[in-house]
Amino acid sequence: xxxxxxxxxxxxxxxxxxxxxxxxxxxxxxxxxxxxxxxxxxxxxxxxxxxxxxxxxxxxxxxxxxxxxxxxxxxxxxxxxxxxxxxxxxxxxxxxxxxxxxxxxxxxxxxxxxxxxxxxxxxxxxxxxxxxxxxxxxxxxxxxxxxxxxxxxxxxxxxxxxxxxxxxxxxxxxxxxxxxxxxxxx
Length: 186
Known about the structure:
Rossmann fold; 8 helices; single chain; five-stranded mixed beta sheet; elongated; alpha/beta
C-alpha cells in the first residue's frame, strides 16, 4: 500500500499543502496523512503515518524536508522503516529506498539538506546581529512583561501558575519568570 505524508510549516502555506496532496494522490497513495506544523514541534500526523505503515508498504513524501528535521532524524525514520520492511519514496528526488542506490542517495541528500539548513540559520543569525547593530531589530514584543501587573494580581489572589498561564495566554515559564523578577529587590 502507498501511504502519503504531507506537511507545511504554517497555516499560510495552504497552497503548498494542496500541491503536496495532489502529487501524492496522483502517484496513487491510498491513504494520506497531512498536517500544518513546524518540523521542530510535535507532528502527530507523521507519528500516525509511521504507526500505520506495515511490511510491504511504501511511505511517500514530496520532498525530503517535509519528512525529517535533520540527518539524524531522517536516519531514525529510515532505520525504523527498514526494520519493518517499509519503503520510502521522495518524489522530487526520484528516490526510492527499496533499492541500494536509493538508500545511498538518501543518506547523501540528507547530509546536504542538513548542511543547507545550518547555513540558512547561520545567515539568519548574522542578519539579526547586523540589524541589531543598526538599531533595526527590536526582537519579539515582551508579552509577559507587559502582563506583569496582571500576573502578580492573579498570583496574589491564590491562583496557580498553570491557571494564570491559561487565563493570560502566556507560558507557565513566563509566569514564573515575571513572578521572580517582581520579587527581586529593586
